[in-house]
Design a protein that fits this description.
Layout lengths: L7 H16 L11 H15 L3 H24 L4 E5 L6 H4 L7 E6 L1 H10 L8 E6 L5 H14 L3 E5 L8 H12 L4 E9 L1 H10 L1 H4 L12 H6 L3 E8 H8 L7 H9 L2 H12 L2 E8 L4
Parallel strand pairs: 1-2, 1-4, 2-3, 4-5
Antiparallel strand pairs: 5-7, 6-7
Length: about 290
């Protein structure tokens, strides 16, 4: 079977489609009026062909709400710059209530930026918005961007939504070191997945469906990995706990619900614990600052 995902950029259309689906719900956890137009037919087609779309829709709704709340909290501390690396088709500068003086910088591949600007050319962001065309794998270009931002900001929030899982361990290490070297970096928002979650992806067929854009980041100890690079967890919101808080239960397949309900007690406890911490979103801060 041909994968509907040709490269990492396709995931932006897929995720935008799920933001559009969430926006259409009466009980939506957020509203993104630009998501459907940004996703287009391409996003819908990818979603229909992916085997895990129901669970992805659930996680996208939760992660979007989590990140929105993280951003609001960071802004309350005096952050004046948001640096969104691998921004994709995110429309937060347009849909969130933001300080007009805030500088929001979106960095992504040139073709992603060109497409996004074409779609949103008549929309007005709620803050100062700058877009940077860049291949973030180009370490020299990335470093120039980080140094420029660091030289003009008072406090920077870095957002890498849906970026880190697709990078190899050494690439994440390089990025973490570079961000830690920014004297104005205050917070970093990024994905968290447990080793158990990554193993489940492999067994569940998600890796095959996304073989052209596989998850690559798989440290033995996620927390130690970032701690060794000068970052500490300020807050980590796990999807299951957020699902309970927001009353949005995971749409597990019937077989999985049956196994959770009728498994022996000791197996059920282990499965519940693995489920409770399988993934979420973290906000990191430098270990010795702020």
């Amino acid at each position: 079977m041909t994968s509907p995902i040709n490269d990492v950029s396709d995931t932006a259309f897929w995720i935008a489609h799920h933001r559009a689906l969430e926006t259409a719900r009466k009980d939506a956890l957020f509203r993104d009026p630009w998501a459907a137009t940004l996703a287009g037919e391409r996003g819908r087609r990818i979603s229909e062909l992916m085997p895990t779309s129901a669970v992805v829709a659930w996680s996208v709704a939760l992660r979007t709400r989590i990140i929105d709340e993280y951003i609001a909290g960071a802004l309350a501390t005096g952050i004046d710059t948001v640096l969104s690396l691998g921004a994709g088709l995110d429309a937060r500068p347009y849909r969130l209530s933001l300080p007009a003086a805030l500088l929001w910088i979106e960095a992504d591949y040139p073709h992603v930026i060109d497409y996004k600007e074409g779609v949103l050319h008549e929309a007005a962001p709620g803050c100062r918005l700058e877009r940077v065309k860049i291949d973030l794998a180009d370490v020299s270009a990335r470093q120039q961007l980080l140094e420029r931002v660091d030289g003009t900001a008072r406090g920077v929030l870095i957002l890498t939504e849906g970026v880190v899982p697709y990078l190899a361990n050494d690439a994440v290490a390089s990025l973490a070191d570079a961000l830690r070297d920014m004297s104005r970096a205050r917070f970093w928002i990024l994905d968290y997945f447990s080793p158990a979650a990554l193993e489940y992806r492999r067994r569940g067929g998600a890796d095959q469906a996304m073989r052209n854009a596989p998850f690559r980041f798989a440290p033995a100890d996620w927390f130690a990995f970032f701690r060794e690079r000068g970052w500490q967890v300020k807050e980590l919101r796990y999807f299951p706990a957020e699902a309970d808080r927001l009353r949005r239960p995971i749409p597990l397949p019937r077989a999985a619900r049956f196994m959770m309900r009728f498994a022996p007690p000791w197996i059920a406890r282990a499965r519940r614990e693995a489920y409770r911490t399988f993934g979420g979103y973290a906000m990191l801060q430098p270990s010795t600052r702020g």
